[in-house]
Automatic annotation (TrEMBL):
Key words of the record: ATP-binding, Hydrolase, Membrane, Nucleotide-binding, Transmembrane, Transmembrane helix
Organism: Granulosicoccus antarcticus IMCC3135
Keyword RNA-binding attributed: no
Origin organism lineage: Bacteria, Pseudomonadati, Pseudomonadota, Gammaproteobacteria, Chromatiales
Membrane topology according to the record: Multi-pass membrane protein
Subcellular location: Cell membrane
Annotated EC: 3.6.3.-
PROSITE patterns (alphabetical): ABC_TM1F (PS50929), ABC_TRANSPORTER_1 (PS00211), ABC_TRANSPORTER_2 (PS50893)
Protein name per the record: Multidrug export ATP-binding/permease protein
Domain ABC transporter: start-end pairs: 362-601
Amino acid sequence: MFTFFENLVDPYTEGPVGSESTTRVWPFIGAFTRPFRTIIALNIVTSFLVAAAEVGLLYYLGRIVDLLNESTPSEFWSANGLEISIVLALVVIFRPLVQILNTALIKNAIQPNIAALGRWRSYKHVLNQSVGWFENDFAGRIANRVCQMPAACGDLIFQVMDTLSFTVAYMIGASILLASSDPRLLIPLFLWFVLYIVLLRWSLKRIRPASRASSASRSRTLGFVVDSFSNIQSVKLFSHTARETEFAQGIFEDHRQTYAAETRIFTTIDAGLVLLNGFLIASVVGWALMIWSDGSATVGVVATAGALALRINSMSSWVMGSLTSFFRNLGVVSEGMESVAQPIGLLDKPDAPDLQLSEGGIKVVALSHHYGRESGGLNNVSFEIQAGEKVGLVGRSGSGKSTLVKALLRLYDPEQGQILFDDVDIGSVTQASLRAQIGMVQQENSLLHRSIKENLLYGRPGASDEQVISAAIQAEAHDFILDQCDSYGRTGYAAHVGERGVKLSGGQRQRIALARVILKDAPILILDEATSALDSEIEAQIQTTLYGMMRGKTVVAIAHRLSTIAQMDRILVLDKGCIVEQGSHQTLINQKGLYATLWQHQSGGFIDIE
């Protein structure tokens, strides 16, 4: 039975592109709930039926009291036995079936699937954001929003559809029942309802901003904790455990204060509700007793009115709790939209084709990018790299090397200028196809917390085991991979490497990254300090592999250790965002310019800090 309801909606169906990027809450939620419209409608119907059945039971309770009051036991069963048997059958069969159907629709069909659908679409949407977008926020906070916000959407739907529909149906049924007994019984109910709405309005004005603040504080707290744990090595190396604890106390205290401000509102609501419900019970039962005293109502009416008052008393607390939870979840959704609903900043053009490289030539034309500032980055850079040419990039820190590499990878769109691969503007093709043509080894190589094999297959997902092992051997990684064992007993290529690859040394991570690029076998290579984390012996062994890997490919290599790029066909020297020199190693040495100065400052293969 459970499987039937759980499979009524496929949470992994594709949604309309960009539907998550609306800036308004309800259209945003509507994009997630669209596949559930039929189920939600059926849930509303069952909620009405459940409410009607409950009101009907209270009505029949009053009727039984009157029947008992008017007859002896023998007369009671002979006159009413069939009627009572039918009602009991409905209570035993119909009401449970409707209630079970209502619960299954909410708990099994809607809530888990809408949460999964929301997380799936939110994750896909956020994953398409630019690298720069991720650099401007905590990874932990983004993850919290992606995971918590869709679950809050599911709870919102439950609270709106189930609670609201049940309450409306119940109040209508209760009003009809009281009016049919004696219209005067509606007076205390109406007064209570007016006061309840006043309390509700007071509450809702305060709950939403308080819930939003609490949700934002919770995300900040999670972001801080993840950031601290992710950088645990720095914390330990600088002996800052006490300092981090002090920071944490301030952040935790901020969250405690915002959460306390939220709970003060809930306590005030509960106090007001207790007083209101006391008024409801006393006034409805008291009024029913008054009209019974003057002979205008039966004992059954008094019993029904009292039962209804008690049920509305308990239901009002449930409704108020649902509404406060509703606005708390609305705060979570609203806060989560700050990440999940942001439009994609770096988009492919509509109907952009895939990049098809025939040779691998690179042309950069009047490229400028300052990250929205007046200076820094690149300033009117132009150069051309022939297909198969090996070019090194050299310059002091901040000269624009990394900015240039990010532009070649189209991690951002430049403010001015063009980059062409084989005379095709990279801004006119899909980002995925562009990066598929580039293999890159970075100075800092973070790995996914998955198996070594899965990390290697990032280079070529369809590669065979033989190809994976061959790439690892070429990168001098095979032997240390075979020695790996994780906490679950997985060994070799199946061993998991920890978050960001922390279980491996820097050199081991770099060799995994090299093996991954070897496996990818892309026509363009970008090497950003590709051997910086290797010891001299391993680097010497890897150099042969690197030169073999470069054969027939276009190569752009960044290095502070100038000896690693001295054999390049050409070297570009950057300073303050401009190309100030270019030529072969010997040509640049003879020019006695910036490159020659940097070369002279080398000590053991490194540039002097000055």
